[in-house]
Amino acid sequence: MVVSNIQTPGVYINEVNGFGNSVVPVATAIPAFIGYTPQAVYQGKSYLNLPFKVTSFAEFQAIYCLQPPATAPAPAPKQYSPEYYLIKQKALPAKGSYMMIDGAYYSIVPDASTIYYLYNSVQMYFQNGGGACYIVSVGPYGTPSKKPINPGDALINPNVVLSDLKGGLALLANEQEPTMYICPEATLLSLGDNQTLMAAMLLQSSTMQTSVCIFDIIGGNAPDPISYTVDIQNFRNSTGSIGLDYGAAYYPFIGTTVMQNSDIDYTNLFGGDVTQLAPLLSPADNPDPVTAAILSNIQKPASPPLTVLQNNNALLIASKTYTQLIQLVLVNANILPPSGAVAGVIATTDSQNGVWQAPANTTLGAVSLPIKLSETQQAALNVDAVSGKSINAIRFFSGLGIMIWGARTLDGNSQDWRYLSVRRTMIMLEQSCKLAAHAYVFQPNVKNTWEAIKSMISSFLTTIWKEGGLMGATPAAAFSVDCGLGTTMTADDVLNGFLNVTVKVCAVRPAEFIVITFQQIQATSS
To answer: Residue 218 belongs to what H/E stretch?
Structure first.
């Protein structure tokens, strides 16, 4: 307030800034999910190919899920409905899930064009403690092919298109807030298309320097106990050499309980063709009259017709074979890429301990694993002598459960960037300081400005050090901030309007290997 502007008697307050500008830490756990959703419409507005931030699973459902019909009491629509088939085998199947019916083996295989992962991955994210996230819906589900894949073949969904996913990724180039890129349906692409997408994700992350990529590995859904290393090598050969410190991979897939008994019924079998189910549940040489009557009622419903839920419950009571089949299909449908659950664990770790805490040695919402890795097997994942591309294992420990047992980026040969927590901490520090420095863009390039910036960043880093985010016995040992003529700038820099700040920090690094030494001492007389 200028005193000369006071023209009437009274009491006036003249406010003076008591504190300078400060650095506000940016959010560290805001994943962006790219993939296919049941729909992408809310109140008549399309959210297709539009990055949108949701803060809860309920909000995700309101925009991206099919809504119940207005007429009651109509059943709620299924948000995800994979289709499975039974294929008779001459002998015990070497790969995949199977069951025995009347002495014959049947492989349980999906219609690949009905398999999607985004919906369940978002559920896993919120169930593991995730908060706000971005959704980029690149389209609705495609048309089922009504054909199963061959037992043991790679799971490739023809409705999952590389150009769709790359287009969704490109939309995130205009969003600064997301800190993780997650595309669980990338594993439904061919190896070549998956390679192209991962390279694009790493390139965008390293260019923007605001996010990391969380990758799943093709083949992690049904790994062979012996030849699973081929899937690992294919992944390592597909990730190139650009932006490796901005990527992290997790293996294998995880068995979950996201889908419940009510999500799978006879409409998920044989493309909903009950005529193919009848010979299995009530064969001619061993008929089951009750089951046959239920199946007949499904094909030719009485008036009023029974609902799918009522018919399904009747089949579950009448036929043990049907009950076993539904349970096996449910187990298969619940095998999911781990990236969504890992993102939830990262969000929980950040909120409880800080971004500098390694997101490992932590349980996640899983009940089974398609392969249980040993320490010896993990050793080959952890460090690769040729490429150095580390892969984080998800392992089962007796008495502890299923845990994330790795916290490395793909850049395993780098002393600076081999740990995911270090890379994510540096992203947070860099982006926080960058945004805070915007306040000084048009300030005079003089000593007062330099000292203000040094004081602002030093105060921020001191707070991070006190919280345990930086190593060192004192703040001086944990970081340094330089800004000034003769230290970070020359006279030409000042004249040309360049203000250079140099920040050095000592980041916390995980102690992955704990060595315990035992020494035997010979007993002596007292």
So the answer is: none
What pLDDT does residue 18 have? 58
Calculate the average pLDDT of the chain.
91
Residues in the chain: 526
* Residue 498 φ/ψ, nearest 5 degrees: -95, 125
Q: How far apart are CA 176 and CA 134, in angstroms?
A: 11
* 370 prior amide bond cis, ω within 30: no
How many C-beta atoms lie closer than 10 Å to residue 521's C-beta? 5
- Rounded distance between C-alpha atoms, residue 160 and residue 111, angstroms: 13
| CATH topology (fold) of 31-71+116-142+156-256+335-420 | Rossmann fold (3.40.50)
Q: Beta partners for 403?
A: 363, 395
pLDDT for residue 9: 77
Token code pair at residue 240 = 């190139």
In sequence order, which residues have a C-beta less than 8 Å from that of residue 170 and are 6 or more positions away?
Answer: 204
In degrees, to the nearest 5, what angle opens at C-alpha 192 toward C-alphas 411 and 386? 30
User: Mean of the pLDDT values across residues 312-338?
Assistant: 95
Give the three-class secondary structure for 505. strand
Q: Where along the chain do its domains lie? A: 31-71+116-142+156-256+335-420, 81-111+260-333, 448-526
**143, two tokens:** 């048309």
- Strand boundaries in 330-449, DSSP class E: 335-336, 362-363, 392-397, 401-405
Per-residue three-class SS string for 244-312: HHHEEEEECCEECCCCCHHHCCHHHEHHHCHHHCHHHHCCCCCCCHHHHHHHHHHHCCCCCCCCHHHHH
- pLDDT at 4 > cutoff 70: no
